[in-house]
Every structure is written in structure tokens, then in C-alpha cells.
Design brief:
Blueprint: H1 2-35, H2 44-50, E1 53-57, E2 60-61, E3 65-67, E4 73-74, H3 76-89, E5 95-99, H4 105-110, E6 116-117, H5 125-128, E7 131-147, E8 162-166, H6 170-178, E9 183-187, H7 190-199, E10 204-208, H8 209-218, E11 222-240, H9 244-257, H10 262-270, H11 272-275
Parallel strand pairs: 1-5, 1-6, 8-9, 8-10
Antiparallel strand pairs: 2-3, 3-4, 7-10, 7-11
Amino acid sequence: MKKLLTLLLSALLVTSLFAGCGKGESTDATDKKDNTKTAQARTLDEIKESGKLIIGVFSDKNPFGYVDDNGDLKGYDVNFGKRLAKDLLGSEDAAEFVYVDAASRVEYLQTAKVDVMLANFTVTDERAEKVDFTLPYMKVALGVVSPEDALITSADDLEGKKLIVVKGTTAESYFSENYPELELVKFDEYQEAYDALLDGRGDAFSTDNTEVLAWALQNEGFKVGIESIGNTDTIAAAVQKGNTELLDYINDEIKSLADEQFFHADYKDTLEPVYGDSIDPDNLVVEGGVVD
């Protein structure tokens, strides 16, 4: 009898242990699943109630979004963000800027860490499946910058060379798809990429031509040998997929700002001091969301 009772108790104990393990695994799986869910974007009313418009920008991409020597956030995208906050909430100070890197832009929208992304975001079909883009406010293509004494002037010149790119950018996808044999040296941050070019860890660096042109003008010994490669694309603001309320508001804002030529004024304030007379503003700036 004692042996029978012992066997029964042992069986019950084993069953309980297995049941406990099963429950724990189920809970963990649920938690993991919940962690991947898209957070709900804030409504316009919630944004107004909070008194803050949360905007994702670059902090290291001069002259579009960067921190200057005084520690102040400046740039073409930053000016637009301040204007959005002013017109929506009554003050430029209502803009709360969050620094992002190129690869995190989609994720920051999907998880509602920001309301709107203004990080020099090039519109692509792949990205448009994950976020909603507004009307464009700028035109752009890819460019390639390299040392003047070893200037890269065509894609053929890149054969056997190392090309620096930033992860999650159109440069990474373009060269991966069209020049798969090319060795890409990839970095998370723009500053890391430029440092690598300066240190000679790569032969050239590719990103938006608007940026490499600006950088080359500020860094002696470097030149943009390929001013345009790939398609001419547009840059736009982006919101979480399905957030039509905020999307419509920003589109209406972009249209209304055309009356005062806001983006040309923004160019004059932030980009002209860098480009000087080397670029025609009309080749970059888009007013009213209409691409010429």
C-alpha cells in the first residue's frame, strides 16, 4: 500500500512540474509576442492635450539635422519640425525632438516613440509598406564622395574598392541590389561613416547627394565625383501606418506653406550657407508637395 501511495504521489508531482513548465512557456511566448506589437499612434487631440509634438530627427546629418558647436539642434528638417509644432500647438517650443539613426526610423514610428519622422526620409516602395509618407518637400538622388587624390567618378571606379554606407539607407539597398559584388563597409551612424572615410577605412562614401555635397564643401581634400546615381527620389515626413488624421494635417500644412515659399526660406536659412552658389535651390526644394 505504501509503495502504491508513493508511486501515486510521484506521478502527481511529475504532472504538476510539467504543467508548471508548460504554463511558464506559454506566458513567455505571450510576453514576447506582446513586445513586438505596434503601439498605437497618438491622435491629434492627444497631441494637443499633451502640448508636445514628438518628432524624430537626425543629430549628426548636417545640414538637415545636427547639433552645432553650441549644443543647439539645427537643420532643414528641424526648421520644418518647429513650424509644424508652432502651427499645431502655438509654439516652436512645443516640438520635442528625438534623435534617431537611419535604421531605426521605421521602428520608432511603429512603436509610437515619435509622432512624426523628419529624418531626411527618402520615400521608397518598401518603406511605404510600413509607414505612411506625406507629400514630399525635397528631391534627392544618391551621390558618392571620395578623396580628391583618388577620386571615384563612376560606379566602375568602385570595382575592387570599399564603399562606406550607413545601414538602413537607400545607398545600402541600391548598391546591394545593383552592385552585389561590391564590398560595402556598413555603419549605424553617419558620423561613424564619415570618420571611416577620413581614416581611410573605405575608399568612398555614398548617401544622399544633398549631404555629401555639403560635407565635401566643408572638408578639404574631398570631392563628390558622382553627383547623381540611381533614381531621383523625394524626401517626405512620415507617420505611423494608418494614422490618416496626422497624415492629412501635415499634408494640408505642406500645401498651405507653399503660399509663403516656406521651404525656399528654409533652404536659404540652413542649406545656402553650406552650398553657396554651387546648387540651384529649385533642383532640391519642393513646394506644396508638387514635384516639377
